[in-house]
Amino acid sequence: MLEVNKQSPEAKPQPSEAGGPTAEAGISIAEAARGTGVSVHTLRYYERAGLVVTTVDRTAGGRRRYHQLDLDWIKVCTRLRATGMPIRTIRQYAELVTAGRGNEKERLALLESHRAEVLAKLADLQDNLELIDHKIDVYRGRLEAGTADRLWAPTPDN
After folding, report:
1. Above 70 in pLDDT, residue 15?
2. What is the pTM of this model?
3. Which are the contacts of 59, defined by CB distance < 8 A and separation ≥ 6?
4. Is residue 107 predicted with pLDDT exceeding 90?
5. How far is residue 100's CA from residue 124's CA, in Å, rounded to a whole number?
6. I want to staple 65 with a disulfide (CB 3.0 to 4.6 A). Which of 57, 71, 77, 108 is the partner?
7. CB under 8 Å to 140, separation ≥6 — which residues?
8. Which residues contact 94 (CB under 8 A, 6 or more apart)?
9. Is the distance from CB of 27 to CB of 69 less than 8 angstroms?
């Protein structure tokens, strides 16, 4: 997972498509939204919620300018969020990353804890998928055998 340090970012800026502005020079919030797959509203929220590990640059007119490091970090946040990590935990992780070196054990513990939660959810999903697969097999078998009309259906008397 991407770790960042304000003094020496690991992410190298990449040119944007079609010779347009680069993430190094900064791209608009609309371009950042397209590049990260989140809405403009979500980008603003992530910034307000303290999830972004850098201060997003602004133009002289006050418009946000996102850099590759910002885009990479936002993608990390959205992936963590997609796994069910609460905003407060993402914020805690972002604060640890922003603080820099010396808290790697805390970062590791946070991620290991979340990983355990994700694995538990995956196990539950696997159990649920097995039930669905069983039900599909029953319906396919009954339809092929011509006995689907004998499948249980709830009635007020059951």
Report:
1. no
2. 0.74
3. 26, 65
4. yes
5. 36
6. 57
7. none
8. 50, 51, 52, 53, 73, 77
9. no
CB 94 within 8 A of CB 50: yes
Cβ–Cβ < 8 Å for 101, 7: no
If you compute the radius of gyration of the chain from its CA atoms, what whole number of angstroms results?
Answer: 23
Q: Helix 68-82 and helix 29-36: axis angle, to 10°? A: 50
Residues 26/61, Cβ–Cβ less than 8 Å: no
- Locus of tokens 């946070």: 110
Instruction: Count other Cβ atoms within 10 Å, centred on residue 93.
Output: 22
Q: What is the pLDDT of residues 25-50, one digit of tens each?
A: 899 999 999 999 999 999 999 999 99
